[in-house]
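Narrative of accomplishments. A recurring question from our advisory board has been how the design workflow behaves on a single, concrete structure rather than in aggregate. To address it, we present the structure tokens for one chain from the evaluation set, followed by the sequence designed for it. No filtering or post-editing was applied between the two.
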């Protein structure tokens, strides 16, 4: 399992449903022993970290930064799924803009929604809700010169995605429930100058490893709003301190370590 909590939930189910007790995660089943343990999945840290320093990505990142001007950039990347909490995230951003008018025209939220389960009615309805929410926020709070949310419904190739990570000042990763969530680790890996702020849901498995992030309850839209403000106003020295620790952890416990550990 990805987290210690999930391992413990499984072992409790074995006891309550099957009546099977365990000893340090080992359960005797007939003439064999089953073992439940925790293996948090990692990413290819070096691949993302090196790509973020490549000529192509640096060039694309510079072009993105020029297009956004002096505005702070918040990135949100997820596949289309109810578990990702995209609507809550958009509502939290809307509350932030309503409560902090001084940030109008100084920040932009880039929302990338990757198509998923195309043709399933419930997912198409979710997409419709997201489309309407983006339109509502941009129509109500935007201006001729400023669009609060830049929204794209498509997948990104590797290098453009890394360029977007590198350009973003804040990553807003707020799933309602997620086994691990590797996007949060990818963002941390691309921060070559160790600036940037990660806002992460407490419901994501990655939150147990990335404790220096701003950990929030994804069901609380006001908390999302407050975290956005804190992230945008966080001193650079604090950003570097937090990212240095998270990077060392993500680098040490990469996908190779994950595979080898079991």
């Amino acid at each position: 399992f990805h987290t210690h909590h999930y391992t413990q939930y499984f072992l409790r189910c074995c006891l309550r449903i099957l009546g099977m007790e365990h000893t340090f995660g080992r359960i005797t089943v007939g003439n064999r022993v089953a073992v439940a343990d925790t293996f948090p999945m990692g990413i290819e840290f070096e691949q993302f970290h090196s790509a973020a320093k490549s000529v192509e990505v640096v060039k694309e990142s510079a072009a993105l930064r020029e297009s956004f001007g002096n505005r702070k950039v918040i990135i949100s990347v997820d596949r289309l799924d109810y578990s990702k909490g995209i609507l809550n995230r958009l509502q939290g951003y809307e509350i932030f803009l309503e409560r902090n008018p001084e940030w109008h025209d100084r920040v932009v939220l880039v929302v990338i929604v990757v198509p998923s389960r195309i043709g399933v009615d419930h997912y198409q309805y979710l997409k419709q809700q997201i489309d309407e929410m983006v339109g509502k926020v941009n129509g109500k709070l935007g201006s001729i010169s400023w669009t609060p949310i830049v929204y794209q419904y498509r997948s990104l190739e590797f290098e453009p995605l890394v360029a977007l990570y590198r350009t973003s000042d804040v990553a807003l990763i707020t799933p309602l429930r997620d086994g691990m969530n590797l996007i949060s680790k990818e963002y941390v890996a691309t921060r070559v100058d160790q600036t940037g702020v990660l806002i992460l849901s407490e419901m994501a498995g990655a939150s147990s490893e990335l404790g220096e992030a701003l950990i929030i309850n994804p069901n609380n839209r006001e908390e999302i709003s407050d975290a956005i403000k804190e992230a945008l106003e966080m001193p650079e020295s604090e950003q570097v301190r937090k990212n240095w620790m998270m990077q060392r952890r993500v680098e040490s416990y990469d996908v190779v370590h994950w595979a080898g550990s079991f």
